[in-house]
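Protein record
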Amino acid sequence: MIEVSTDRNGESLRMLVWTGLKQFPTQALFQFLSDPNVIVRTATARELQIRGGKRVFETTRQLLASDKKNMRELGAFILGQLGTPKRPFKKQSTNLLLGILRSESNATVRATAICSLGDLHAIRAIKIIVAFANDPSPSVRGSVAFVVGMIYCERRASIPVTLWRLLNNLRRDRSREVRSMAALGVDLVMGEQ
């Protein structure tokens, strides 16, 4: 699981981990992706996203082929914002993430790949993303709803009617998580977030 929250009042663990990671050369950071602590793994993934570069891209690409689902999840997460803010590997990352969606059996990895496509504003992937709106996993369906909102948040006038229908259908999903994410997706498109 990717842990993206912030420290609670009076706690500084995430800040300390993040500060400590800055002391390491880029290639040495990859060892921390296997740390048993989710905070260390996530902070490392974020630091790798910021550092970016060809070596980070190549090593992250290898994570997607791991037999460990948490490594594939971290790989998908890193690709979504690799080289922030310019994201120089956007096209390659999009292709890799689409490949994951076609072959991944783990719902958490699929949901992360979908969210990363949203981070990349990969509008060319929208048809494939939307195909997961009926996924058995609520986290995947919720990711679809959120990503539609992310991709169209700056293109409100150009959102196809079929995607409005999809968001409205997901707002009536049997899962509260999906309904919540669909409402957020609608808010994003409407410019209310």
